Amino acid sequence: MSQAVSAGRARPSAQEPALVVEHSEKAGLVARLAHTAFRLTVRPALGLASAVLGSVNDKNLLWIPRLLDPCLFLMPPIRGTHRRRVQLLNCRAEWVWHDGTPDPGSSQGPVVLYFHGGGFTSCGLNTHRRLASDLAKTTGAAVLNVDYQQLPSASFADTLQDAVEAYEWLLASGRRADQIAFGGDSAGGGLAFRAAIEVRDLGIGVPGAVFAFSPWADLDCAQKAIHPNHRLDPLLSAQILGNVVKVGLAKDGLIDPSWSSVNHDFAGLPPASIHVGSTECLLPDAELLAKRLGEAGVPCSLKIWDRQIHVFPAGAVVLPEARAALEEVGQFVRSSLASA
């Protein structure tokens, strides 16, 4: 197994812990209102849809969430952002870059390779265009937002392969591994770490950094089901996630443990940054992911944000905490990646 580390990557000293956990200040008024509103509206709706999926147990129902992204084809990026569609081997992607950043098609500057969330069943280039453009602004890098294959027409293996091929495409364009950061949210956050593990094991060379918002890093929902946040999360629950796994990913009731990034060795991975809300049902995933990274000696920062909803950085237009998290990730990416 290849566990190469890019030359010159800093490692924690004997006195410096690999894992740093930070808690945010108390949530502001807008965040608290959003938390309550989502708990009263969105979670019951998702819970009902999940219950139907679990009882019918028909994989074809997973086509329904796929309709969300096409409906948002007019979703604009933030002002001052440019974008261009590209075709990868088996999926599409979209370049997103901000004023002041060179056109990624004609430059070899830093890149964020981004994997959107959506539970492997929903979302895509349209739903995540604004978040990608926010990241392009705060990181100073061009963002390649990958529209990877999803359920029910593709397997997790197909999804992971798309992630690896997107990275290989960037390397083939002339960029170095240490100029590329992997990032993602929710299912895409777990995928970002799983893809980093995969390229390490394939000997391709690890990227310069990895970050995630609310990562779904453990597809086994048993621990999430017994965590207090199973009931506190205003958006998701272990049951909602578990029914996606049951219907879309499991075979004969079993899930391949190798698909979950938390079940792997993290030695040789690049510095990592993880952001999650304090009441999210995915908090155990974020904490376990950070713990495993720290145990492997990988520099990792975990920030737990008071009462922030799932993937709260997507709400930067209204949430001050979202803008703060994006700025922190921007600083992390800029400090981690080598200059072009």
Tell me what the structure shows.
The protein is α/β, with parallel strands linked by helices. The chain has one domain: Alpha/Beta hydrolase fold, catalytic domain (Rossmann fold), CATH 3.40.50.1820. 37% of the residues lie in helices and 16% in strands. Strands 1-9-8-7-6-4-5-3-2 form a 9-stranded mixed sheet, with helices on both faces. Helix 4 crosses helix 11 (320-336) and helix 5 (156-172) packs across helix 6. The longest helix has 17 residues, at 156-172. The radius of gyration is 19 Å and the shape is globular. The relative contact order is 0.18. The model is unreliable at 1-10 (pLDDT under 50).
Could you give a short description of this structure?
This protein is of the alpha/beta class and 340 residues long. It contains eleven helices and nine strands.
Report the CATH C-level class: Alpha Beta
Overall residue-averaged pLDDT value:
94
Beginning-to-end CA distance, first to last residue: 29 Å
What is the count of distinct domains?
1
CATH superfamily caption: Alpha/Beta hydrolase fold, catalytic domain
How do the helices and strands follow one another from N- to C-terminus? Answer: EHHHEEEHEHEHEHHHEHEH
Number of helices: 11
- Approximate shape: globular
Q: Within the largest sheet, what's the order of strands?
A: 1-9-8-7-6-4-5-3-2
Give the topology.
Elements: E1 19-23, H1 29-40, H2 42-56, H3 68-71, E2 81-87, E3 92-98, E4 111-115, H4 129-139, E5 142-147, H5 156-172, E6 180-185, H6 187-202, E7 209-213, H7 222-225, H8 229-232, H9 238-249, E8 272-277, H10 283-295, E9 300-305, H11 320-336
Parallel strand pairs: 1-9, 4-5, 4-6, 6-7, 7-8, 8-9
Antiparallel strand pairs: 2-3, 3-5
Helix pairs in contact: 2-9, 4-11, 5-6
